[in-house]
Fold this protein.
Amino acid sequence: MIVSQDSIERRELFKRIRQDIKEKQYAAIPFPLTKEELDKAAEYFLDFLRLPIDLKEQFYFIIDPKDRGSKVGYVRKRKKLGKRKKYADDDKELFHYHECAEDAFKELLASGTPHVTTFFASARTVYRAAKTTIKTIIQAFETEFPGVYKKFFSDKGYPRFYLRFLKYNIPKKDKTLASGHYDLGGCTLTIAESGPGLRMGTDDSDLNPVAYKEGYVLFTTGFNFQKVTSSEFHPAWHDVIKIGKPYSKDVARWSIVFFADPVGMEIPKFEQTNTPKKFQG
C-alpha cells in the first residue's frame, strides 16, 4: 500500500497537536497572515466600534433562531451579578463575522461607509485564512477519526465557522477581563491579541500564561470536540486577566478568535461551560 506524502504530513500534524494539547492544552499552528496584517485588522475593527451606536446595532443577524450560537454581527456583552442587575467587570464589545454576513448586510455595505468597508474587507481576509487553517487541522484529525471532517465541513446547512473580533473595555477595578470558561463549540483558533493576559489549563487550579510565537495561531478544543473525536481532547479551561497598561484610553485589550463547530451538535448550557470540572481521558 502506497501512502501519500499528504497523508504522512497529516498524521504527523495530528501527533504533534495531540501531544501539545496533552502537555499544555493548546497547539501552535502556522498561519498565513502576518502580525502587521492582523494588527491592522484589529484597528479597522476598533474604527468600526467608533461609529454611532444606532448604525452598529443594524449589524445584527441570527442565521438560525434555533441555534443560539449562530448570531452574526455586533454585540455588547456585560456579565450580570445576581438578581440586582449589577454588572461584573467583564464588559466587552464584539463582532461575529460569518460568510453569510456579506448577504445579510448587503444594503448596509452598499452605503460605502468607510469604516464599514475597510473592516469587512479585512474580516473577510482573516476569515478565509482561518477557515483554510482549520481545514488543515481537521484533515489531520481525519487520519485518526474517519468522518470527523464532514462533521465540520458538511454539505448540509450553513458552515458553523465564526470569526470574532473582541474589544475588552477598561475595567473599573477587577483584574479579570474574561472569567474562566470552556468554549461551547468544537474548536478554536486564537489568532491575535494586543498583549498578554490569556491563561489556559484543565481547570482553575493549573492556569498558565499562554506563550505566543509570531506566524502561528493557537488551536484549542471546545466543549463538543471530544464528542466527535475522543475523551482525551477535553476542552481547555481559560480566562483573561489584566496585565500591564491598557491598549488605549478606552480599550483594555483586543483579540481576534475563530470558532469552528461541528454540524448538528447540541450546544451546552451556560453552567456546563462556565463551571470547571475534571474530565476523564
In short: Residues 114-142 form the longest helix (29 residues). The first strand starts at residue 27 and ends at 30.
